[in-house]
Amino acid sequence: MNAIELRNLTKTYPQFTVDDVSLDVKQGYITGLIGPNGVGKSTLIKMMLGIIHPDSGSITILGRDMSKHEIDIKQRIGIVSDDCFYYEHLTIRDMKKIIAPFYKKWNEKKFNGYLEQFELSPEKKIGQLSKGMKVKFSLAVALSHEAELLIMDEPTSGLDPVFRREMLDLLADMMQDERNSIIFSTHITTDLDRIADYIAFIHRGKLVFNEAKDEVLERYAIVKGDLELLDSDIRNKFIGIRETSVGFEGLVGNKEEAAQLFGDYAVLTKPTLEDIMYFTAKGERIHA
Ligand SMILES: Nc1ncnc2c1ncn2[C@@H]1O[C@H](COP(=O)(O)OP(=O)(O)OP(=O)(O)O)[C@@H](O)[C@H]1O
Fold it and tell me: Does the keyword ATP-binding belong to this entry (predicted)?
C-alpha cells in the first residue's frame, strides 16, 4: 500500500514547471525527496498539503483523494517545516490552544513532554522563534496527534547537529509502528544516508527516479580514470563528468556496463547520494 500516490501532477509557473510527476510514497518506510535548489521539491510538497493546487493530476493520501477529503486527511498527517503558517504574534501556549482542538487524537501530555525535551518555552512568541525552533515546534505538534504520515519540507536545514541527530532518532522511533510513513525533502543527503529507505530524486521539475536507496547506490558508480580514455562516445555514457588536467571523475547509471567498458583501465567506486545529485545536476540530463 502507498501512503501517497501522485499521478501526473503538473504545475506551471511563469518560469518553472513541475512536469507530469507520478510518485508513490510507500507505507511503512521513510522516503527522502532530494534534488538541488529550485527543482520543485517544495512545490510538490505544497501540492501534497493542499497549500497550492496542481494545474492537472491527482493526489491520493492515505487512500483518499486530497481534493475531496483534505480536512480528514490532515487529521492523520503531521507537517514539519520552518514555514508552517502559524500566527507570529501568539505564544506557543496560545497557538497550541488553537491547534489542539482541531485534532481528535491530540495528546496534551505528549505535547508538553516534547516542549520540555526540545527546550521550547510555552511563553515564547512564534515570531521570536528561530528557524530551528519553528521546526521543533511543528515536530512537537506533529508527534502529539498520532500522525500516521509525516510530510517534512527541509526539516533539518535549520537544526544544529545535536538536535538533528535527536530528530532522526525520534523519526526512527515513529517508524517502529509499521503503518507509519515519512516523506522528507532535503539537500542534506547525509541525513538520508542514515535513515531513508527510498529516494525520490527530482531534477528540473521532473522525477528522475524513485527507488530503494540501497538499489540506487548499487546501480550507479563513480568512474575515475585518465583523460585519454575519453572520446565523445565514452563521454556520452556519463550522466555527469568532471574533467581536470590530470584525469576525470564521472557518474554512470549502470555499474555493470561501466565495469565491462573500462575493465582495469579505470577505478569504479560506490557513489554517495550527494555524488548522484551533483553529477546529475552537472550533466543536466534526465535519464529516467
Ligand atoms: N509562487 C510562485 N510563483 C512563481 N514561481 C514560483 C513560485 N513558487 C516557486 N516558484 C518557482 O518554482 C521553482 C521551484 O521552486 P521550489 O521552491 O519548489 O524548489 P525547491 O526544489 O524546493 O528548492 P530549494 O531546495 O531551494 O528549497 C523555482 O524556480 C521557484 O522560483
Answer: yes
Which residues have CB under 6 Å of ligand 1?
13, 16, 35, 37-43, 187
Q: How far does residue 154's CA lie from ligand 1's centre (Å)?
A: 13
- Out of 16, 184, 188, give the residue to mutate to test ligand 1, the one with the largest number of ligand atoms within 8 Å of its CB: 16
* Cβ-Cβ contacts under 8 Å for 172 (sequence gap 6 or more): 195
Would you state the CATH architecture of domain 2-216?
3-Layer(aba) Sandwich (3.40)
Q: In sequence order, which residues have a C-beta less than 8 Å from that of residue 283 and are 6 or more positions away?
A: 238, 239, 240, 241, 251
Positive or negative torsion for Cα 55, 18, 150, 65: positive
Output the nine-digit C-alpha cell for 195. 535513515
Angstrom distance (rounded) from CA 133 to CA 128: 9
Do residues 43 and 185 touch, judged by C-beta distance below 8 A? no
- pLDDT tens, position by position, 13-66: 999 999 999 999 999 999 999 998 889 999 999 999 998 999 999 999 999 999
Q: If you take atom 29 of ligand 1, which residue's CA is the nearest one? A: 38
